[in-house]
Each structure stands twice: as C-alpha cells, then as structure tokens.
Amino acid sequence: MSELRAEAVNLMKIMPEEYLFAIVQYAQDFLKDKEYAEEQMKLAKFQSDPKKYEDEINEFVNGWIKETHNEERANKK
Asked: Tens digit of pLDDT for each residue in 7-36?
C-alpha cells in the first residue's frame, strides 16, 4: 500500500461517520467522471502551492472563462 493510501485509510479510521458519507460520494464522482476527476486533481495541485502554479492557474481560469463565453454564444443562437 502506498504511503498516500495508508494516510487516507488512517484518516478514515478516525473520521466521524457522517463525514465518511460525503467522502464516499466524492470518491464515487471521481470514478464515474474522468474529466471531473482530472479537474479536481488540478485544483488540489494548485491549492498545494498557488505561487508555484500561478501560470497554470491563470491558464485554467482563462480557459474556463473562454468556455463559458462560448457556451453563452451558443445558447443565444
């Protein structure tokens, strides 16, 4: 078992039951939707060191804005 998996298991052992439901739902979303999982992994990486990933964060946000504008244009047609 990797160190990360072992840490996750240890955290789940001490976590209150009501929190586990949310975590299980979140994990299931990862397994169902690869695009969602990849986006969430990027966000986690960005949060780990915002200064280090500043350029990538800007690209991500600008891409999201561009996508939103394209969707709005498409909906107006």
From this structure: 989 998 999 999 999 988 888 988 899 988
What pTM does this model have?
0.55
Q: How is residue 62 written in tokens?
A: 């600008």
Phi and psi for 36 in degrees, rounded to 5? -60, -45
Per the CB < 8 A criterion, the answer to whether 60 and 46 are in contact is: yes
DSSP string for the chain: --HHHHHHHHHHHHS-HHHHHHHHHHHHHHHH-HHHHHHHHHHHHHHH-TTTTHHHHHHHHHHHHHHHHHHHHHHH-
